[in-house]
Amino acid sequence: MGYVHGYSDRESVRLTEQADALEDLLLSDTAYPPGSAVLEAGCGVGAQTIPLARRSPSARITAIDLSAPSLDAARRRAVAAGLTSVTFQQADLQRLPFGVGTFDHVFVCFVLEHLQNPSTALRELRRVLRPGGTIICIEGDHGSFLHHPRTDASVDAWNCLIEVQAELGGDAFIGRRLFPLLREAGFLVQSVSPRVVYADARSPEMRDVFARKIIAGMVEGIGESATDHSLISPARFQAGLADLLGLARSSEATLCYTFFKAHGTRG
Questions:
Q1: pLDDT for 98-122, tens place per residue?
Q2: Domain 9-266 is in which class?
Q3: With CB atoms counted within 10 Å of each terminal CB, which end of the chain scores lower, N or C?
Q4: Contact in structure between 187 and 265 (CB atoms under 8 Å)
């Protein structure tokens, strides 16, 4: 697994700001029953863990990640938020240290896109899910990003993000693949819903967060990798990044991006 955005403090902040901005869009219809056992697979620094636990205060959440530093950050966030219903554990998503049918529910958000073998991970998640248990997968699709004003440099910089992720073995277009991936892993797919973010001058706060913290924030984190791999010149990358950042200030700017949220059950 190669995390395309890196593990810097800046990325940790970006993930939290992204989770805050998208919470209602992505999690408004997600809550788990009291006493249920929930596995959050690939919790990272806990950006999604905190709102997930707040929305299901009486569920028992086990949050796992392969990165020990990320887990430490997630634990600190949970303590600061006063959450006591979450247990953190270091684990490999593709070789889980849990028995068959351990969990009632599985939650996976922005994880499958980084895996070389998402099908293997989904089959493993199905193994630890009880019959009739549910899985929620949320992923973005970088092919859905639309913006105006659109410059050649901004498109080149955005495409670098897609290419760097592919070189690491991930899939920046995985949102559109959730249905076949879940079905191939043996889940009964109940729904796949597009969750669209759109911003323009009528919503300047969302436009600012969307442009600076989500779109440009993701691109900025891969600048060194993109130039090191000769995907783009440093000057061209900086020009494209500047154009993406400029969307936050332009009264003419519009931005649109689609996330996909899939809900399945283990038959």
A1: 999 999 999 999 999 999 999 999 9
A2: alpha beta
A3: C
A4: yes
